[in-house]
What does this fold into?
Amino acid sequence: MPLKGASLQIDAVVSQLRELRVKSLESRQRRNKPPKLPSRKVLIGVADGLRAILFPNRLGLPELTNESVDYYVGHMLDVTLRELLAQVRRELRFVSGLETISDQDQEQAFALIKAFAQRLPHIRSLLESDIQAAYEGDPAARSIDEVLVCYPGITAITHYRLAHELYRLGVPLIARMISEIAHSATGIEIHPGAQIGGSFFIDHGTGVVIGETAIIGEHVRLYQAVTLGAKRFPVDEHGALVKGNARHPIVEDDVIIYAGATILGRITIGRGSTIGGNVWLTRSVPPGSAISQAQIRNEVYDGGAGI
It folds into this structure.
């Protein structure tokens, strides 16, 4: 209901916002009708559809039978991949800056979706190993199904594994959006560019951050608030950040990193190592290391390698 005797000056606000919007588009050389971005709302549905395709009996329709499950998976594949194809076309159009997508980009989008679909069995296999690692690594887990439907770490890893394939295939914006959908829901941030081996377990998970160029081996376990980040951000001769350089840690097989640990820079955590809670680490450690806060403090006070 309008306020009596008051003017909200909506027309003036609309005009000022338009001026700012036009100025922003001109600064990015996207005048007139800028290409539309992929839709976050649609991608939420795509991610849910893909999860149902991978695990139809637990994340699909509740009334599925052995006779109907393949039909359901086939139907969901058709619907979900078509929706994803439309979003891939949007990203390619956005990158090109053109209002319409070229025939070459149409073919590229279709080929990408076909390649992505063929990777779904591989993604399912990796997720099976992740779920098993979570079940075996958490004494509170009563069943495999509980891990799948309840654990935020598995939700984040599922989104990551889908997003990583899309990132690898050449649609990094959609990949990032799918990863960020899980980030919003779980508090776990995994960049789709990270390389993560099988049997990966994130316990509890809130506050975990894994950077774009991180490499994680097999059978690695992280706890909440672990950061695998960059130590510094190099700039070019113009002062702009250098993008794409390897700047995040390498974590080898069978490593455990406990809650609150911060590991920065292109360093290597050797196979079979254990990193204690709240450790701040900026140097490589050899295989089989056990790093604690007390050890780090002693190194600093003794004038050793330190951090």
